[in-house]
């Protein structure tokens, strides 16, 4: 069956040159964007129950923009004035750049990884005498704590925000040719919102092995998968599939 409509379970890209917009133009398909999950901050009271004393830490590990926002939110709620001496270890340049929303960049000690957490680890290791706090979501990849333990540093994880299923009830009678997922949480959201969901002719596209597993474990048929050597991005995988099915008579 030909593809005319696609629903991507993420917010609409804010950049004009997104490959999704190129895909719309080239393949003449309609693409809608809708986050299937969203982030909600936990209360300062909940943070206290995790036995987190912000005055005890000399360094903060920041893995995402959410971790930046919620660290400073909790600090404000607890009336903790973040000292100028605090060190910030940011997973990527994007996270470090976002940190400027809260601190004067040139006056702070900020250490930046290239993109992934393993690339940040050597920087953390250089400062093993610091006391590190990792403000994170409730859905932290298990590889991250394992890597920090291997570094032999003094660190603590604290849940500052949670990944929550979004309300998609308005989509109950809306049908798409392809649904696109990027995390197991997205699959969970689909099935919680629509427990009677039947795939039928709906194609499902997934990014990453954990998302593939979540889909197949829940009895869904995966029709499009990325990354692969041939299609390293989701838009490339979608375009390859659309070209194949839409040219058929």
**Classification by helices and strands:** alpha/beta
The CATH architecture term of the largest domain is 3-Layer(aba) Sandwich
E-strand count: 11
Q: Name the CATH class of the largest domain.
A: Alpha Beta
Q: Could you list some keywords that capture this structure?
A:
Rossmann fold, alpha/beta, 249 residues, five-stranded parallel sheet, 9 helices
Polypeptide structure, described:
This protein has 249 residues and is α/β, with parallel strands linked by helices. It has 2 domains: 5-36 and 167-246, Rossmann fold (3-Layer(aba) Sandwich); 40-163, 3-Layer(aba) Sandwich (Rossmann fold). It contains 9 helices and 11 strands. The protein has helices spanning 19-27, 44-49, 65-77, 93-98, 117-126, 143-151, 184-193, 209-217, 234-246, and strands at residues 5-8, 30-33, 37-41, 59-62, 87-90, 109-112, 131-137, 154-165, 178-181, 203-207, 224-226. The strands form 2 sheets. Strands 3-8-7-4-5-6 form a 6-stranded mixed beta sheet. A 5-stranded parallel beta sheet has the order 2-1-9-10-11, sandwiched between helices. α1 runs parallel beside α9, α5 runs parallel beside α6 (143-151) and α7 runs parallel beside α8 (209-217). The model has no long low-confidence stretch (mean pLDDT 94).
